[in-house]
Specification:
Length: about 170
């Protein structure tokens, strides 16, 4: 189990790094485009589309990272009122629902990305293959599913199930 946690931590770290780079690149591109547009009357024609792709990548790659760091929004007031077994059951059910939803989204999005790849669809302004930024969607959900499955298994090893120890680490 420790080896799996290390792999997920490494994947999460890489996804966080990639999402950070994507968002910083988007902000930088936006700044350069504003300067070009207003100072030199020469906007970058592909900037808007590229910033959209960078934002998509950053957001979806971050989904698994947020789950791994347990920094997503949750309302646990009712769960905290339950006895220990009830808390374990509720958290397991929540992790199962999270993993199942993420798996369904991976199954649905992978064929779309594959079709974009096989059709060689290009972005109009940015002139990049559309499958590249769209691939962040199933990748992000795959990491989210992996984290949720790991958390679901970890709940059983953590009998206290307090928020600080929910991740089983």
């Amino acid at each position: 189990m420790l080896a799996i946690k290390r792999i997920v931590a490494a994947l999460s770290g890489f996804a966080a790094w990639a999402a950070t780079i994507a968002l910083l690149a988007g902000v930088t591109l936006n700044f350069v485009n504003v300067i070009g547009r207003y100072a030199f009357n020469a906007p970058i024609s592909w900037a808007e589309e590229t910033m959209l792709f960078l934002m998509i990548g950053g957001v979806f790659l971050s989904a698994g990272v947020v789950a791994w760091e347990s920094s997503h929004i949750r309302v646990e007031i009712l769960v905290d009122l339950l006895p220990r077994r009830g808390r374990t059951g509720a958290r397991t059910l929540a992790h199962f629902a999270e993993a199942a939803t993420a798996i369904v989204l991976v199954v649905v999005t992978v064929p779309v990305v594959y079709k974009l790849y096989t059709f060689k669809q290009m972005a109009e302004a940015a002139e990049i293959p559309v499958w590249i930024p769209q691939a962040a969607i199933p990748l992000g959900f795959a990491l989210l599913a992996l984290v949720a499955a790991l958390r679901m298994v970890s709940v059983f090893g953590n009998h206290d199930n307090s928020r600080s120890g929910e991740d089983g680490s």
